[in-house]
Amino acid sequence: MDDKTPSDQLELELDICSARISQLQNELEHAYRKVSLLREEISQRHFLFSNDESVDLLQRFLAWRESAYIPSRSDGISQFLRSETISAKEIARTVGEFNRSSWFDSGWYVDSYPQVGELRITPAEHYLRYGAVEGKDPSRNFSTLGYLVRYPDVVLSGLNPLTHFLRYGLAEGRSAGIA
Q: What global pTM score does this model have?
């Protein structure tokens, strides 16, 4: 037989309801925090694409991208340029950095961009000289354009995005550009 009085049963139900209300309040606070973070992200994205400085940075990137190719020989091979011509030694150094890192995946790169496999240069050299300017990603774990959009200073530096990430970005705690 149930020894609980109606008052005891009401108190038990009240305790259960209070616990549920507390749980719902916690869930609501969590949802408010998520909404606040999303609003902040939307605001930042809006700022990125609406302020004059960001428009200027985007225009500089597009100019960098367009000027990054020049015909270097009559066979149509182009050379990637920064403010100075990249030396063979610098190309070898950078290609080595790419190949030693987990951020460049030759197999993935060739699978994603099959025309690269038909060229006489390695996938890493292709990415260094041409791929980044074309907006190609060096692996599924690094977004070239994502990195440039997130870090406009890299656009202004003129460095290949993956080169910047490996030499500076990782130590600075920067993201690989993947959302």
A: 0.57
